[in-house]
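tool_call: predict_structure(chain=1)
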Amino acid sequence: MGIFLYPTHKKIVTIIFVPFLIMLFIFLPTYNRIFRQNAWTGDVGADEATQLALDAALGKGSSTDDDSNWGFLVFRLSEIDMFTEFVKSTPDKVDFYGTKLLEQSAIAIIPRIFWSSKPITEDLVMERVYDANVVNRGSTVSAKPAFIADAYLSGGTLGVFLSLFIYGAIAQLISHKAEYLFGGYILGTALIFSGLFQILWRGLSFEFLINSVFWSYVSMLLIQKMFLAANILKRF
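tool_result:
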């Protein structure tokens, strides 16, 4: 049995829900950030952290412009501000990285159980953020660059063009492979591809993206083998 809403009820729901959603979109990012900063340190209790976060979200705190709701909406939400900082520093102050980011991505793929002294991926990524002065080295903020930023850092405008072309091609090939392995769109693309490769929908820095896609692909092959063994799938 479905649920039916009369037109008047739909209007009431819209009038209530839309403003509420807009308020959450504007105020929740700052509230969430301030609450976590205070609650995770253990210096203040949950009640005090809640009050500090509420004051900051409502503009009563002493946060800087970059930490305000407006700063989040204008800069962090689009990540354009971070990208422009990379463009300003490279190649004027920091040379293009060439294949270095791909080499670091290959390192990130190796499981730590086989290489106990493997460099921490977060540290590798943040190093280029610090070099570009996007954030200060003393900051506790994690500001991993987007895929397009790493593409530019690797080879400028040409690097962006080639990286985005390869990105789209790989995503399409994996989608087709999933559909082939699992016998159709519903199981292969809608479930397996969408479930394992969600990171392709939003992108991330090279190291995290390539590592996730690589092991998701391995997982897809293993799942197909298990389905065949369990007679959920049959070979044609």
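agent: Residues 7-77 form one domain. Proceeding to next step.
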